[in-house]
Amino acid sequence: MSALLSVALLAACGGGGADEAPSSGSVSLATVTTGYAPKPIAPVTATPVPSTTAPATVVGARITDIRIQNTGGAQINVPFTFGQVIAAGQMAKTEGLAGKLADGTVIPLQADIKATHADGSVRHVIVSGVLPSLAAGQTQTLTLAKSSASAQGNVTLQQLAASGLDSKVTITLDNVQYTASLADAIAAGKPMNWLSGTVANEWIMAAPLKNAAGVAHPLLNARFDVRWYAGLSKKAHVSVAVENDKTFTAGARNLTYDVKIDVGGRTVYTKAGLTHYHHSRWRQSAWWDAASTPTVHLQHNTAYLLATKAVSNYDQTVVPSEKELARFATQLTDANVGPMKIGMLNPYMPSTGGRNDIGPLPGFSVMYLLSQDKRAKDIMLAAAEGSGSWSMHLRDEKTGYPLRTDTEATKLATTHMNLANRGPLPVPRCADGNNTLCQTPYAHDTAHQPSLAYLPYLVTGDYYYLEELQFWAASNPLETDPGNSGNGQGLVRWQQLRGQAWSLRTLGHAAYATPDAHPLKAYFTKQLDNNLNYYHATYVVGNPNNLGAYDGSGVAAFPVTASSNWQDDFFTWSFGYLAELGFEKAMPILQWKAKYPVGRMTAPGFCWVHAAPYWLEFRDSMSTPVYSSFAQMFAANFGGGSIRTDDDRRYSDPLGTRFADHECGSQAQADWLTRAIGWTFPKGRMVGYADSVNGYPAILQSALAVSATSGIPNAEQAWTTFNGRTAKPDYSTAPQWAIVPRK
What's the pLDDT at 725? Predict the structure, then answer.
């Protein structure tokens, strides 16, 4: 099976599982137990069982809907699983879900509740069901409504294994063959449930890769994830992951090997000479019976998903370009999809300039959100799979989870290359000491870090994506001297301003999406709380300037004399978004911070045409205070004989007049700019590449949108002025900044 096909299968089924405490249907998480149910059930038969045998058929209030699109031939008993965010207050933990088709047919659903809101209502649930039939080319709309709780499952993984399913990964490294099998993993014990019910059960477990003598490879490990739809012959989805991500094991290095993966007695992936980079991971997925692989594409209700506030309020009037979607369909090939490949992502994250993957969410993810098109979803999921390729994955062998940095063993840890000899836990370190054995084509960077796994996890319920999100959130504090990050507190204050914004976003995603019962839930929530406390003390209480501008105040931060205002706008958006996610401590920080973008659009003495240049000086030197008013800042930047514009070069009027002498937004001001820069500058156009999807006004849009949503003083006026500008981006091809205020 090709790498591309593997991704397509993932897109169809939303596969994935986890090493964590099990979750049961709609039963309170407090009642969940681990281990295997002792009561045996009948072996799997070859006769499909109609979906009406499932529980929870009492239909109550409507919540939302999902569309199930057939991308292949006619199918019967079509299994599906997806993740669904639920708005606060809509669904209690004691309730379940049922589905209703357009013809009135009720489809029983299994609801595995994962995360809850602060009020105790359901935040994120994984929904499984079986559609009785789906004609070729047909799309069925399934309305999701509240119902009685789903029943607890009693199926065991041993029973599935006894039915004939097995899977094996074989690796040949340095002429030695290592294997790990699903049977080995079951025998090792402690498989954990991710889904549990009468529709679908899912388990994930780890197994060492051993040679013929039974000796495990010191660095490599295998993980098996099996999702089984009960009563349906061979309807099981298997994911096999190979990991080179151990934290405390010495000798980190890249490994080159031949690999073969078998599922249900057939080879589904083979590759000779695969180079597996240090502290990275990959996986391949397949259905037990290839002939009965479901071919469906699940389309979420975009308006509802945006209304839950799990994602920013992207402009639903933007219509994704069919030309761009058609281009997406040609972009995924075996050359860029599969183990140690990253899809359409930039391998060198520190690359400067606007990119499709940089923003609150990547442009391709927003294209998927707004279109629900399979071509965009495939691009998004390929990026989520590829996110495992970067060498920042640190799994704690002692716990089995991504490394946390608040323990006695890890609070002084660092991965910074300049601190390679520092103890007590300098991780990760290359086996040869000079990094020759750890060269990788992929460079990660907090200042240009995309959101690669959050939305894929929300809409699929795939634990592999959840762990990717957790790995990225956990690694960010390790990129510096541990004192800068608060010796285990996870503070991001030491980063570039844009790095602080993206790290806060990733940390917020991890705290929001991690299931309540997961051991890392409290950890990520506390790390985020530590950061919010720091910014509140530094800016809200400390109030270092009147502008609301980030000026580098605070311990272990970097004071600055000028603002890359677009980075500052990233930062403002992050607090507005965290507040929308329900982290209340972010709101007072937003209220202080939003003065800066709003003031650049509305404050007396500051012309909004120049609200989004490349940068703005906000004090004369480090020994002088930040300007006391926007008028003073505007005069310092634009009151002289020359000004900076789009390309950050200085321009002067050949007639000798000053830019500041003309009325803001007037034709006279536009004429001044036209004379100075040598091309027609229309009235009402903002500087900063105003018509670019990655221009500085586009970035400002995100900060203004969250400010207006949150009722910041003068923010509605700022938005009205901004929305009335004459030059705007065409977001149809890259809508990553197309955020608008919530009504």
Answer: 97
Q: Is the pLDDT of residue 42 over 50?
A: no
- How many CA atoms does the CB half-sphere of 466 hold within 13 Å? 30
DSSP codes of every residue in 115-161: EE-TTSSEEEEEEEEEEEEE-TT-EEEEEEEEESPPPPP---HHHHH
Note the maximum CA span of the chain. 91
Q: Which residues pair with 349 in a beta bridge?
A: none
Percent of the chain at pLDDT exceeding 90: 80
Residues 6 or more apart whose Cβ sits within 8 Å of residue 599? 547, 548, 606, 630, 714
Distance between CA atoms of 171 and 8, rounded to whole angstroms? 24
Neighbours of 636 (CB within 10 A): 15
According to DSSP, the residues that pair with 243 across neighbouring strands are 221, 281
Nearest CA to 522 out of 55, 105, 677, 530 is that of 530
The whole-angstrom separation of Cα 225 and Cα 469 is 18
Q: How far apart are CA 739 and CA 732, in angstroms?
A: 13
Most confidently modeled of 417-431, 502-516, 666-680?
502-516
Look at residue 655 in the predicted model and tell me its pLDDT.
92
Return d(Cα 709, Cα 1) in angstroms, integer: 48
Is 332 or 161 the better-scoring residue by pLDDT? 332
Q: Which pLDDT tens digit goes with each residue over 166-195?
A: 999 999 999 999 999 999 999 887 888 999
Mean pLDDT in residue range 375-385: 98
Position 409, amino acid: A
What are the tokens at 573? 């958006």
Burial of residue 177, with CB atoms counted within 10 A of its CB: 0-12 exposed, 13-18 middle, 19 or more buried:
middle
Question: Which has more pLDDT, 3 or 523?
Answer: 523
Q: What is the pLDDT of residues 466-500, one digit of tens each?
A: 999 999 999 999 989 899 999 999 999 999 999 99
Q: Write the CB contacts of 193 (distance below 8 Å, at least 6 apart in sequence).
A: 22, 23, 34, 153, 201, 202, 203
Provide the whole-model pTM: 0.92
Ramachandran angles phi, psi of 43, nearest 5°:
-60, 160
Q: Please report which residue ranges of 416-462 form alpha helices under DSSP H.
A: 454-460
How far lies 449's CA from each of 473, 500, 501, in Å?
11, 10, 10
**For the residues of 260-307, what is the DSSP string, one character each?**
EEEETTEEEEEEEEEEE-TTEEEEEEEESSGGG---EEEEE-HHHHHH
Characterise 430 by phi-psi region: left (phi > 0), alpha (psi -120 to 50), beta (else): beta
Give residue-wise pLDDT tens across range 211-237.
999 999 999 999 999 999 987 878 899
Name residue 499's amino acid: G
pLDDT recorded at residue 418: 76
Closest CA relative to residue 159, chosen from 16, 261, 39, 266: 39
Instruction: Please tell me what DSSP assigns to residue 215.
Output: P
pLDDT band at 424 (very low <50, low <70, confident <90, very high): low
Tokens 């960077």 belong to: 445
Q: How many CB atoms lie within 10 A of CB 119?
A: 10
| More confident position, 29 or 357 | 357
Contacts for 612 with CB less than 8 Å, ≥ 6 apart: 565, 566, 569, 600, 686, 687, 688, 690, 695, 696, 697, 699, 700
473 Cβ contact list (under 8 Å, min separation 6) = 506, 507, 509, 510, 524, 527
The predicted structure's pLDDT at residue 650: 84
